[in-house]
Amino acid sequence: MELNREYEWRGRRVRWTATGDGPPVVFCHGTPWSSWLWQPFAQALASEFTVYLWDMPGYGASSKDADHRVSLDVQGELLADLLSHWELDRPHVVAHDYGGAVSLRAHLLHGARYASLALVDVVALAPWGSEFFRLVRDNANVFGALPPAVHDGALRAYIAGASHRGAADEQLEALAAPWRGPEGQAAFYRQIAQADQAYTDEVEPRYPSLDVPVLVAWGTEDTWIPVDRAHRLAELIPGAQLELIDHAGHLIQLDAPIQLATVLHRWLTRNARQPPE
C-alpha cells in the first residue's frame, strides 16, 4: 500500500493512502515507526472496511523539514485536521505507541470524534521515555552528527530491542530505512529530542471522561512500555476492554501478528455493528 496521496498542513507534507470498502478505520503509528507496521493489518481489513494509512510529519514518507516541530501537541492537532480533510466524522481509530497519545489528544483537546478507539501498547501514562530518550534529548546535535555507520548500528540495535521474539533482517531494514541519510538521521534524533511527557500529563486527567468504546491491547513482554500501563489505562477509562497478548513485546505487530489481527478484527466488527450514539 504505497502512500500515494499528499495532504499539505502548515507547510508539512503528509503522505497517506486509503483503500477498501466499508466503515472507515484510521491507523496511527508511533515512534520510531511508520505506517509500514500497520500495512498488513490494513490490507487484511480492506475487504470489510475502508482503511486509512498515513505517516506523521517527521516520519516515514512524510516531510522531515528541520524547521517543523514534530512533538505530540503538533501531531494531535494535525490528526484532527486530517480527519476533517478526509471528511470522516466518526472513524474507528487503531493506534500504537505515540499514536495513542496523538489520537487521545486529537479527541480530548481538538474535537475529533471516533466510533471506537483501539490503543495498542501506547504512550499514554507517565512515566515514559527511556534513558536513551533522555540522553538524546540533551545531546541531539551530537547524535545527529554521528558517522552514518555508527548511527546505523545504534538505530538497528534500538529498533531490535522493541521485539520480544526478534525481528527478521528484512523487517529491521524496512523500519530503519526512513532514518538513513542526512535528512533521516537528523529527523530520527530530532523527534526524540522533542519527546515531552507534558503532552500526556496534560490529557491523562481526562481519560475517565472518554465516552467512546475503547480497547486496550498489550504485549505482555513489552519492555518499552511495560504491561502494568495496560492495566492502569484500562482502569482509568470507563468500560475499556483489556486484551493481553502473550509472548509479544512492543513491536506486537511483528511478534504476534495473528493474535493481534484476531483481536482487532473482533473489536472492529463488533463496534461497526453498533449504531453511532
From TrEMBL:
GO MF entries: monoacylglycerol lipase activity
Any single GO CC term annotated in Swiss-Prot or TrEMBL for this entry: membrane
Keyword list, A-Z: Hydrolase
Key word Hydrolase present: yes
Matches recorded under Pfam families: Abhydrolase_1
GO biological process: acylglycerol catabolic process
SUPFAM superfamilies found in the cross-reference section: alpha/beta-Hydrolases
AB hydrolase-1 domain sequence ranges: 23-257
Name of the protein described by the UniProt record: Alpha/beta hydrolase
Organism: Phytoactinopolyspora halotolerans
UniProt lineage: Bacteria, Bacillati, Actinomycetota, Actinomycetes, Jiangellales
